[in-house]
């Protein structure tokens, strides 16, 4: 028996209700009996180097001696790999023979007992669900997404007969999971707010979750808002582009995965979402994370928000005093309020626009046409003086998420996305245009990929007369 076969569970493809007691396994193997406890560490190191010790990180190789009298005296033994046979010295390495000959250890038979708690989610599900019949069939579901205590699956029809078994094992093997759900439709196809229908497979129907990301706490009802845990690296990637004191417009903010961390960085964020439930959670998350000085919340249509927020920011005035961090002691005498280290003044121009609605965000781009050409009370020529070369302020970067097909090099996809940007803006944008990048975010389906198109708003678009 090889080490790989040694740790596979027994198989029962007829199981309909999870029977944990079925997953018992006794493995007849060998062990090195260490006669002196002081030699345990040395023997483990030397037998690992000689490839005699059991190579499994999930099993503690140091075990109590199988003889009760030796156990009472603290006797220990070291598990050996299954290819080492206790009564066949030809299977021993020279190092194991040397240690046995000099009386440091003895090689003995050993029975290793494994149960349900040892085997992984992947191993248990593979043991109870029939494997794919053909290469074109879906693989046994191994991955899941986690939002707080809720694990959500998207099971193919082939696995529906096993869905409750899958959910129970998943919850057993992941201590953070209390509720397991299965999505019943595609996000965004049934509801404009990107919510979804679901069924509870295990645990309570409690979708009020709390989680942490980028050092921030988020609370929301997962059944009523959009959240994708797999986008955490994308949230962080964009937030790393924002600098302290910049103004950021988050057009489809959701519950705040971009807006709240940006506020923590002392960026002035105007965050908007059309979904009333998302807006409610956004307001709560702003308060929870103490970023009210930097993040303002809005609940309106994204296209309207793009135009209105740009005009309002030009005329608004807001500043935040940044005080030094001081230690407070109740026993210390009352002190005067410290003077601020610095004061951050909200800019009049957004440095970044975030548009994280990949199914349709790109269709909102026409709202940027003439963004600064028809601002009430401010002539376009006056606004132009706020930008380079008159100042160091550049026109804002737009970060718009979208879907496209997938290929190995993304060349065709980049071309298609740039063509669509050009069509929406009525202005030619190519991959070679300065400040343009098409970032591959993640795969979302076998033939579908999510991208983030980032480009600087062209002056010809921003000041076009309409």
Measured distance between first and last alpha carbons: 77 Å
Query: What is the CATH class designation of the largest domain?
Result: Alpha Beta
CATH architecture heading of the largest domain: 3-Layer(aba) Sandwich
Residue windows where pLDDT falls under 50 for at least 5 positions: none
Write down the overall mean pLDDT. 92
Q: Pairing-aware structural class of the strands and helices?
A: alpha/beta
- Helical residue percent? 10-25%
Query: Rg to the nearest angstrom?
Result: 31 Å
**Shape designation:** elongated
Share of residues in strands: 15-25%
CATH superfamily of the largest domain: Vaccinia Virus protein VP39
List the helices and strands and how they pair.
Layout: H1 3-6, E1 25-34, H2 40-49, E2 62-64, H3 68-72, E3 76-79, H4 94-101, E4 105-114, H5 121-128, E5 145-147, E6 150-153, H6 163-173, E7 179-183, E8 198-202, E9 208-213, E10 216-221, H7 232-239, E11 247-250, H8 259-264, E12 268-272, H9 276-288, E13 295-298, H10 302-315, E14 319-322, E15 342-345, E16 352-355, H11 380-384, E17 397-404, H12 411-425, E18 437-445, E19 448-456, H13 459-462
Parallel strand pairs: 6-7, 11-12, 11-16, 12-13, 16-17
Antiparallel strand pairs: 1-3, 1-4, 2-3, 5-6, 7-8, 9-10, 14-15, 17-19, 18-19
Pfam families: TRM5-TYW2_MTfase, TYW2_N_2
Protein name: tRNA (guanine(37)-N1)-methyltransferase
GO molecular function, one term: tRNA (guanine(37)-N1)-methyltransferase activity
């Amino acid at each position: 028996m090889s080490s790989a076969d040694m740790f596979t569970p027994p198989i029962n493809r007829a199981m309909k209700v999870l029977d944990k007691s079925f997953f018992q396994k006794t493995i007849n193997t060998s062990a090195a009996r260490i006669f002196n406890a002081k030699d345990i560490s040395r023997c483990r190191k030397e037998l690992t180097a000689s490839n005699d010790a059991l190579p499994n990180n999930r099993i503690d190789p140091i075990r109590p001696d199988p003889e009760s009298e030796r156990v009472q005296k603290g006797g220990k033994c070291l598990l050996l790999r299954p290819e080492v046979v206790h009564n066949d010295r030809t299977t021993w390495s020279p190092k194991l023979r040397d240690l046995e000959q000099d009386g440091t250890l003895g090689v003995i038979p050993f029975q290793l007992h494994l149960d349900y708690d040892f085997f992984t989610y992947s191993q248990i599900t593979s043991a109870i669900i029939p494997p794919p019949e053909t290469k074109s069939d879906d693989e046994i579901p191994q991955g899941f997404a986690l939002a707080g205590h809720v694990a959500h699956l998207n099971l193919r029809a082939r696995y529906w007969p096993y869905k409750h078994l899958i959910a129970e094992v998943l919850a057993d093997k992941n201590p953070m999971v209390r509720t397991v759900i299965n999505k019943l439709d595609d996000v965004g196809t049934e509801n404009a707010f990107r919510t979804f229908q679901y069924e509870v497979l295990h645990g309570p129907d409690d979708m009020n979750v709390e989680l942490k990301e980028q050092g921030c706490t988020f609370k929301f009802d997962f059944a009523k808002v959009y959240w994708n845990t797999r986008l955490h690296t994308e949230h962080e990637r964009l937030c790393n582009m924002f600098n302290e004191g910049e103004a950021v417009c988050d057009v489809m903010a959701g519950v705040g995965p971009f807006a709240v961390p940006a506020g923590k960085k002392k960026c002035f964020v105007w965050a908007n979402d059309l979904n009333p439930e998302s807006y409610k959670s956004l307001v709560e998350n702003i308060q929870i994370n103490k970023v009210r000085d930097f993040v303002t919340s809005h609940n309106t249509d994204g296209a309207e928000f793009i135009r209105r927020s740009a005009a309002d920011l030009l005329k608004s005035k807001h500043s935040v005093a940044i005080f030094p961090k001081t230690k407070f002691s109740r026993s210390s005498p009352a002190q005067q309020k410290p003077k601020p280290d610095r004061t951050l003044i909200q800019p009049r121009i957004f440095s970044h626009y975030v548009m994280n609605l990949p199914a349709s965000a790109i269709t909102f781009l026409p709202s940027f046409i003439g963004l600064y050409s028809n601002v009430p009370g401010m002539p376009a020529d006056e606004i132009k003086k706020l930008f380079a070369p008159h100042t160091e302020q550049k026109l804002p970067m737009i970060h718009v998420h979208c879907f496209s097909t997938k290929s190995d090099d993304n060349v065709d996809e980049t071309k298609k996305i740039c063509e669509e940007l050009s069509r929406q803006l009525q202005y030619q944008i190519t991959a070679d245009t300065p400040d343009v990048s098409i970032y591959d975010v993640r795969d979302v389906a076998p033939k579908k990929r999510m991208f983030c198109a980032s480009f600087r708003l062209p002056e010809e678009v921003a000041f076009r007369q309409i």
